[in-house]
């Protein structure tokens, strides 16, 4: 059982939770993740480790309410408990000193970008964070990102603030106004966004890493749920990733595999909403 020490509602759909987990706080590295069960009868869901504090013995996770399990987690309040939190899992981000690093995040991916941007900056790089949100009201963690990166700029789908368009269109516009290419790019977000960002940086000839989000079950390399194809080879994202060379990832297969359980996910959510509606 892991106690929720603090909760912030970043948007009506996205919650920031600081959770007691002293051993994870001690050992985690940017790019790694945890697997949680909000309740003891919940399924397991993977979440990025956004921050850790060894003094408070706590970690931070940022959760978007998507289907049943993430909604149960987002519905938890301060003082309540998560049934379990396992981690740190996966490999840390490959952080090196290269010069200028472009960190690109979309949606809740912006939260996942935060520790990676901070690690690149701490390694002596100049870090630009290009972030995408649906509208000004959906922008999250802007202040925290400004602490982690040298430069933080936003694109919104509806143009309510920043660049009007999606974050990949923003990447193209941003680069067009610059004299030189970044040395490296890191992308995190929805699959179509990562695929489009990888296609663009391939044209630029800029090395790019993507943090992948396949369905994960055990997180230990045993179940095969998180199988992805990278450079024609089968890889298990939970133990060999979640970060891979974005130019080598088979995003079509990833998109197919993440949508494999949609009917069951829709059914689980409908049953959950029905029960919540009946207050049972
Ligand atoms: P469901 O309705 O069951 O599923 C909705 C969609 O979520 C599915 O179609 C599928 O694409 C995805 N999904 C469902 N179950 C899983 C699963 N077990 N593993 C992976 N994806 C799944 N989300 C955040 O909000 N914040 C994060 O920091 C974050 N970090 C992640 C880090 C990694 C390494 C991975 C793989 C995923 C991460 N996700 C994160 C995505 C998060 O795990 C899913 O949104 C969550 O599992 C959805 O579960 P659900 O029951 O609410 O939704
Ligand atoms: Fe089971 Fe990766 S989640 S092998
Ligand atoms: Mg689910």
Written account of the structure:
With 280 residues, the chain is an alpha/beta fold. It has a domain at 4-89: Elongation Factor Tu (Ef-tu), domain 3, CATH 2.40.30. It contains 9 helices and 17 strands. The strands form 4 sheets. The chain has a 7-stranded mixed beta sheet, with helices on both faces. A 5-stranded antiparallel beta sheet has the order 5-6-2-1-7. Strands 4-3-8 form a 3-stranded antiparallel beta sheet, with helices on one face. Helix 3 packs parallel to helix 4 (142-148). The radius of gyration is 18 Å and the shape is globular. The structure holds flavin-adenine dinucleotide (FAD), FE2/S2 (inorganic) cluster and magnesium ion. Residues 43, 67-69, 265, 268 line the site of magnesium ion.
Short description:
The protein has 280 residues and is an alpha/beta fold. 31% of the residues lie in helices and 31% in strands.
